[in-house]
Amino acid sequence: MPQPVKMDPMISEIAGIxxxxxVKEYGTPVFVYDESRILSQLKDLEKFDVVRYAQKACSNLxxxxxLRRAGAKVDAVSAMEIRRALTAGFKAHxxxxxxxxxxxxxxxxxxxxxxxxxxxxxxxxNCGSIDMIHQLGKALNERPETEYPxxxxxxxxxxxxxxxxxxxxxxxxxxxxxxxYQDIPTAxxxxxxxxxxxxxxxxxxxxxxxxxxxxxxxxxxKDFAMSVGSSVHTISTGGGLxxxxxxxxEYVDLEKYYELWDRTRxxxxxxxxxxxxxxxxxxxxxxxxxxxxxxxxxxxxxxGGTDLFYLLDAGFNNLxxxxxxxxxxxxxxxxxxxxxxxxxxxxxxxxxGPLCESGDVFTQEEGGFVVTREMxxxxxxxILVMGCAGAYGFVMGSNYxxxxxxxxxxxxxxxxxxxxxxxxxxxxxxxxxxxxx
Length: 437
Hints:
Layout: E1 13-14, E2 17-18, H1 19-26, E3 30-34, H2 35-44, E4 50-54, H3 61-69, E5 73-76, H4 79-87, E6 103-107, H5 112-121, E7 124-127, H6 130-141, E8 151-157, E9 179-180, H7 184-193, E10 197-202, H8 211-228, E11 234-236, H9 254-272, E12 277-280, H10 284-287, E13 291-303, E14 307-312, H11 321-325, E15 331-334, E16 346-352, E17 364-365, E18 369-370, E19 373-376, E20 383-386, E21 408-412, E22 415-420, H12 425-429
Parallel strand pairs: 3-21, 4-5, 4-12, 5-6, 6-7, 7-8, 8-9, 8-10, 10-11, 11-12, 14-16
Antiparallel strand pairs: 1-2, 3-13, 13-14, 13-20, 15-20, 16-19, 17-18, 21-22
């Protein structure tokens, strides 16, 4: 069972590197990732035949390259994520029927560029709508020189879902994701019309540790595999493995999780008399706990004479999860000089960003309710360290208020490796065009 990353109220180092040294070199705000944690999380899943990284969680090229070298495959959900995967060295398409695709495009639609890339490069497609099957089949039939096997996976909505927030529930009648399970015969007919073989099934119902939901999912997968038949040789559990953000959160029991899916795989093999590859598609699980966002406290003030506010130089333009979902991130204080010998009293504070938005608050609950967090008394110049920021952190950033994208730094064996430079003003405006005077 993995152990949570423990953050004390006051810290001075991350992965053996002084926080003050990181800030001196790269400024704030800055994202840092502990390489060893990413690799240990990947190793936790080694029983699965294929670990396919959902790169939308953290798509930096160096992270993709790291995971490829460690044996992971990759999932892409957009044209540019396909390009990222190719740039990081993942192979476009299998060269033999036995080879597992290194890149799978998973989505509910094709935009025009994504369709073109999938056809040109032979990217395996996990179709989340019947329209996608039509569009792929038509595009392939217009390109008869295709030499690679034309196989697809279908992502199914089993009619139920689960998630840590209503905004992350990816199954059920109110979810846009996947082909509705009762439409399997239509999906098969459309695939057959274009000569596409449905060789894989994928179900992702959201995040959580609820084995009742998971058992439902496994049972549904077995029924769906029986409906499609012996062409199926891959099943994917999807992603959604939970991350421990706060006390009381739980990891999923990976041993039990694997056993449940392995039993399902064996039952499908017996039914269809064909070997089945078992895939898992983690994103957040691999990178969330490796990541930290460092920001400087630029103002400490009270409102109404009592409520204490820490105002940072990082906002929801850097880390949007608290504003979007009311997500909790653990927080620690690093003194400006890195000295932990001074004792500081604990206090309740609201932690906010610099943006001109009332919602730019890191200590809020779902629904936008602002709350305080117990933490050490801090002063201007101290560094606030936000943990579990390695997934859906930088990738959900924006240039709102014309703020620049933060740099990203990989921590490896006591060394700092810059894997993304801080954006410059010139890069911010390079695609904008002034009107003639």
